[in-house]
Amino acid sequence: MSAIQPPAQRIWWKQPLDKVELVWILIAFTWCLVMFFMMPYWHVYGKQNLSAETYRTTPDAFAKKAQEVVDKYTVRTETDEKVPVVRPPAGGDVYLIARLWAWWPILELEKGKTYRLHLTAMDYQHGFSLQPENINVQVLPGYEHVMTVTPNRSGTYAIVCNEFCGIGHHKMVSKLYVVDK
Amino acid sequence: MADATNLFRTCPRTGLQWHKPSESLIKANAVAAVVSLLIGGVLAVIMVLTRWQAVHLVGAEDFYMYLTAHGLAMLAYWIIFFEIAVLYFASSTLLKSRLATPRWGWAAFALMVLGVVVNLVAVFRGDSTVMFTSYVPLPANPMFYLGLILFAVGALIGCFIFLGTLVIAKAENTYEGSIPLVTFGALTAAIIAIFTIASGAIILIPTFLWSVGYIKSIDPLMYRTIWWGFGHSSQQINVAAHVAIWYAIAAIVFGAKPMSERVSRAAFLLYILFLQLASAHHLLSDPGLSTEWKVFNTSYAMYLAVLASMIHGLTVPGAIEVAQREKGFTKGLFEWLRKAPWGNPVFSGMILSLVGFGFLGGISGVMMGTEQLNMLIHNTIYVPGHFHATVVIGTTLAFMAVTYFLIPTLFKREVMMPGLAKWQPYLFGIGMMVFSLAMMGAGTLGVPRRHWDITFAGAALPYEFPGAAWLMLGIVGVSGLVAIVGGGIYILITVGSIFLGKPIDVPGYSTERGVLKMPVSAALTGHGHAGFAAPGTFVVALVFLGSFILYYFVNWKYLSTVWGLS
Rounded to 10 degrees, what is the CA torsion of A17, A22, A28, A34? Predict the structure, then answer.
């Protein structure tokens, strides 16, 4: 008579369903379908979808491209390390390097404008975590991930590393500025 | 000559028949599990007292090392040792069969213990601080991977002993009809375990070769894809195992019969067929995989693994409700629940496990498994919030609950300190519920997981988290300590009872053995109620669904306010 004994009938699969189970299965299944359809729906009508545009890259190749942008569009430097603050033209490509234990360079973007943000890691895996917006993306070495981003609020943001990357992990944090025109 | 392989004893209280070699193996694995839990629990104290930012107990290097060990001790060792015990119990004991190849069982056990020792030595040497996930190219000592591989091989042998025992039971006609539902659930767990361990081998063996310098490099995305076939599938073993235990406890405490064998077994099958949904959702915020791949592989277009858990979430309490109503607790919607034995830790542990797993672990898990929503919490402390609800409240608490049943029948001892045992599930379960919720709260505020210091001490450009995040981490600290006290009481009672508990006088071993008979039953019908057999459970299920829908869409609303991304 119980779950630790064999079923009471040899042909147990012919036992009719109780109504409560049947109704619940139908409701739950409908909900599961709704949850699935939300994802493609958001790709069509939503404005927040993670890009899948990715290229193979190497630290050298990526650093070269990042350096070109830094050389062209640096507006000032910050901290003792003289980290360049880069303000690329709206619609342009911006490069962000994750490495032990820093993000480089600092970006300054314009509110409401769209940028192609290229991300890669130079050494270990890192985590791009934009605060307080709370957008979180994995950053892998060897992969150049191109996300199209459109900041919708001006202010000072932080980029925190949220993938464990060794002893200095907690020091891997940087700024990102979004300015009004 | 008394050949131990033919010796059985029958427990007078439960009627369970124990095969002597199987009994010893179950005991050994259960004890190794509790020892692992103790190690993980001591480390948990350090974890909560360090992440509680106001206390911030240990330094960064120690924190990450202990966190690596905590994850391994809890997620791998405690749970898998216990699961091997459950597999032997569900095959040999429940089917009244002899266990297949006990010697291999001991070899498996020895390999697992050796694996644990090798792995933990590597971690505590301090050169394998790579977390449970050991993402390449973060390097660990080769012993780290070797230990894991040895442990996994041992567990794999255990799975095959389980399958072998099913074959023996069938061949020797130790039971009539089909295997019990609980054994079916254990079979599900074993099948998933074999797949899981194969995935682990496919990625950990090359990673071991990489760590000794034989292979030049391992692609990080490939590593993540295959590793999660191991890392999350292993959690599906837990789900199958603890759901099987829920059914077992409903049967043991209430004599509850599954509402419908067909539905419950089909739901277990869905776990196997839809195994990879949860593995893929770890990759939702990764580069290099197409959107279609992500959307399809985290849902297979219909989330039937979620459906399976929603079914079990209804049918387990539903079966209890039906059993209680048949005993006359028919007043209103909830008399059956009010009159349940809330002071019996076997029941209270199981019901808290079920509720916590469903409401906290389940809902948060599906949110995380949604392609776009994942970006809101990926790698934040929300993630450990979720899996402490599933693995700690769901699996661990279910294992704790069934331990109180096993101590008298398996170890032949009375449970010590029954007054304390009564409170243990509440202390542990409710402590963990608050803990998980607070972690999810902190994660929603952006607090990263696996992070030593959210003040970013020493960083040139620190970020200041909102005060609410600090508050959440404070709650994590306090509730974590409450849960740890609950866990400590469990270990105290278990170890105390096994070694010092009042012995129970039971008949000795003999070569006589019974056959597991099919219960006598009436016609092939349902429960025969005109309306709903379990209306109270159905109402609770609707409340669950309402919370689920609300929380799900709140997150979409939140997503719609963040930066445009495409």
Answer: 130
Taking the CB of residue B362, how many other CB atoms lie within 10 A of it?
A: 22
B302 or A122, which is more confident: A122
Closest residue in A to B89 (Cα–Cα): A4
| A41 plus A58 within the same structural domain | no
d(CA B136, CA B129): 12
Q: In terms of domains, do A40 and A58 share one?
A: no
Chain A residues lying within 8 Å of B372, measured CB to CB:
39, 42, 46, 48-50
According to the model, what pLDDT value does residue A110 have? 96
Q: What is the pLDDT of residue B533?
A: 87
CA proximity to B237, closest of B198, B179, B209:
B198
Q: What is the pLDDT of residue B481?
A: 97
Q: For residue B389, what is the DSSP state?
A: I
pLDDT of residue A1: 44
Which domain CATH number covers A82?
2.60.40.420
Residues A21 and A109 in one domain: no
Per-residue pLDDT band for A10 (boundaries 50, 70, 90) equals confident
- What parts of chain B have a pLDDT lower than 50? 1, 523-525, 528-530
pTM exceeding the 0.90 threshold for the entire prediction: yes
Quick one: pLDDT at residue A16?
84
Q: Which is nearest to B387 in space by CA: B177, B235, B180?
A: B235
Please tell me whether residues A61 and A132 are part of one structural domain. yes
List the alpha helices (DSSP H) in B212-297.
220-231, 233-254, 261-273, 276-280, 291-297
Q: Please report the pLDDT score of residue B530 as a whole number.
A: 47
Report residue A181's pLDDT band, with 50, 70 and 90 as the boundaries.
confident
Nearest residue in chain B measured CA to CA from A10: B177
Q: What is the dihedral of CA B520, B524, B529, B534, to 10 degrees?
A: 80
Q: What is this model's ipTM?
A: 0.96
Q: Please indicate if any CB of chain B lies within 8 Å of the CB of A162.
A: yes
B216 bridge partner residues: none
Q: Which chain A residue has the Cα nearest residue B93?
A: A4
Are A32 and A93 part of one and the same domain?
Answer: no
Q: What share of chain B is helix, strand, coil (3-state, %, to 5)?
A: 70, 5, 30
**Are B91 and B183 contacting, i.e. CB atoms less than 8 angstroms apart?**
yes
CA B91 to chain centroid: 19
Residues of A within 8 A of B61 (CB-CB) are 167
Could you give the angle at the alpha carbon of B202 between the alpha carbons of B197 and B206, nearest 5°?
A: 130
- How many domains are contained in chain A? 2
User: Using a CB-CB distance cutoff of 8 angstroms, which residues of chain B are in contact with residue A1?
Assistant: 255, 257, 519, 521
Residue A154 at interface with chain B, using a CB cutoff of 8 Å: no
Round to whole Å and give the CA distance between B336 and B202. Answer: 49
pLDDT given at position B325: 94
Distances from the Cα of B200 to the Cα of B134, B197, B221, B230, angstroms: 12, 5, 15, 5
Over the range A32-58, which residues count as b (16 or more CB within 10 Å of their CB) and which as e? Answer: beebbebbeebeeebebbbbbebeebe
Window 57-76 of A: residues touching B by CB (8 A cutoff) are none
Contacts of A109 in chain B (CB under 8 A): none
Q: Give the distance from CA A85 to its chain's centroid.
A: 22
Domain with A76, as residue range(s), is 54-179
Domain for residue A82, yes or no? yes
Separation of alpha carbons B381 and B390, rounded Å:
15
